[in-house]
Amino acid sequence: MLPKTNEIIYIESGLVDNKILKTVVSEVTSDAILVMLPVEEGTGRIRTFFIDDVLIISYPSNGCQYRFKTKVIDKTNDVIPLLCLQKPEEKNIKRIQRRMSFRVPLSSKIVANIEKTRGERIENEELEINLLDISEGGIRISCDKSYDIEIGDKITGNLEITDEEIIPFEANIVRRAEEGRLLDYKQFGIQFHNMNTIVRQKIIRFCIMRQIELRKKLMM
């Protein structure tokens, strides 16, 4: 369950204006986890901590997400400076998600191309749809009830997950949600396909960061 060498982990701390930081595990010893100096997600600004500073670590592993509390127990001044974090006991590592493809809210509008197969005909139409949430595996959308969208249709478009990050996607509509059936809109579950590993990792990273942000808001 512990993070492994060369894996990315995320740091929460009230000592840096509630910023979310990320770093890379350099080494795991019998009593410590050595990590590179963390950087702010988005700005790339390097941050450091003092001995005895308390940190919350989050990281994905084996299809789940884990979290534990630790503190800085030492610092090295080698060519590459490192922070030495106290290694937690396994009983103190909490699994906070059972699967990697957990969903987080993502409220925005996109214009997507819908490819519909109707008998022997293939039709294409651009429609404005509402994003509701996102996971590694897909998105959930809502749209006007008048839209001719069905399970099996293909959908392509671009997801703006941050101000700097726009991700192209291809997907299939795989299910219709019960929510909205009696209202003026439809909701659908969309499953990504043909997505490369780099893009998938960006979505996972966004989901983790978004979940940390939401948890912090609940604790305020």
From TrEMBL:
Q: Where is the Type III secretion system flagellar brake protein YcgR PilZN domain?
A: 9-88
What keywords appear on the UniProt entry? Cell projection, Cilium, Flagellum
Cross-referenced SUPFAM superfamilies: PilZ domain-like
Gene3D superfamilies reported in the protein's UniProt record: predicted glycosyltransferase like domains
Single GO MF annotation? cyclic-di-GMP binding
> Which ranges carry the PilZ domain?
97-207
Q: Which domain of life is it from?
A: Bacteria
Q: Pfam families annotated for this entry? A: PilZ, PilZNR
Q: What is this protein called?
A: Flagellar brake protein YcgR
What gene does this protein come from? ycgR
